[in-house]
Predict the structure.
Amino acid sequence: MTAGPLRIVRVANFVTPVSGGLRTALRHLGAGYRAAGHAPVLVVPGERRATEEDEQGLVVTLPGRVLPGSGGYRLLTDRRAVATELERLAPDRLEVSDRTTLRWTGSWARRHGVRSAMVSHESAAGLLRTWGLPGPVAGAAADRLNGRTAGSYDTVICTTDWAAAEFRRLGVRNVARAPLGVDLAALCPPGADERAEERARYATPGEVLLVLCSRLSPEKRPEHALDALAELRARGLPAVLAVAGAGPLRSRLAARAARDRLPVHFLGHLAGRDAVARLLGCADVVIAPGPVETFGLAAMEALACGTPVVVNRCSALPELVGPAGVAAEPTGAGYADGVHDLLARPKAARRAAARAQAERYGWPAAVAAFLAAHGASGTPGAPHASGASGAPGTHDAG
């Protein structure tokens, strides 16, 4: 375990100003590293080069290409530019959040004597299946990808046992378990009056309010929330759905809701934790249909706000939500069954169980686990100046 302060450089793709779970996780981990006395630096793609300092440390934006059909995601595809930036930053540790286009950074780290880690944020096989590959083909391709990834980095950080399984099945030995967390202070159950006021924006007292908080992209399977809504209404339950999130499927989902006369409120991206907390806290049930995430932050945020969750039984979430949710078959009927199951439980009990489950996943414990995976101390040490080791300053570099 290294006791002194370390420069921990994190490189990530698929991060935009409105992307959800990954952006949230990066921010909280960076803030935790900084509070522990280390010097975190985050390198992400954007429209143009820029640097800024915020609560998570130094953030360096490098020009990245837009991924077609992704709804605005950009990728760091210029290896030379990224390598040059890494050499300038001179990291003590490298943490990478993209096992595909950024896997080459593991070799860079090894050549430069830098200890490295890749964070598994999604199931490789699941993601390949959402891109249209048949199950056996996706599984074989994922095995090859995961084997090469594990060989490229000193450590593979997995946030759940579900995430670790696809590596351990291959006999990979350099896997570390480190859960993510949820902001238990900013996200908490609202008072009765606050809940009623927010809820009235979307549902009448006699209606059941469902919420989907997700990026509206194919790998998240947001259409399953509409499938569940249609099924519930066909069964005679007066349910309505509020959808928070943006993405390439927004127009298609809105067209379907209009065509089928489904009561859906499309809210777009909600800026700020307060708006998210108000929405999640006023729902009767949150639906989390995503099949490939290795840790569902939106579902955990719902639990923190005292709202139970119906989750995809094939995802990592059953392990996380425990008795505070229902693991459902990934179909409209399956999610509808899960909603009925949760609504049958006494309201006070199901809300208390949700909050209690979320309290098992605070960010301090997550930060400590990630630092342990890096072989870094979690105790605050001497400040690490932002300009040391050739790092850039905190002003916009244009």
Summary: The chain has two domains: 7-181+362-388, 192-358. Confidence is low (pLDDT under 50) at residues 380-398.
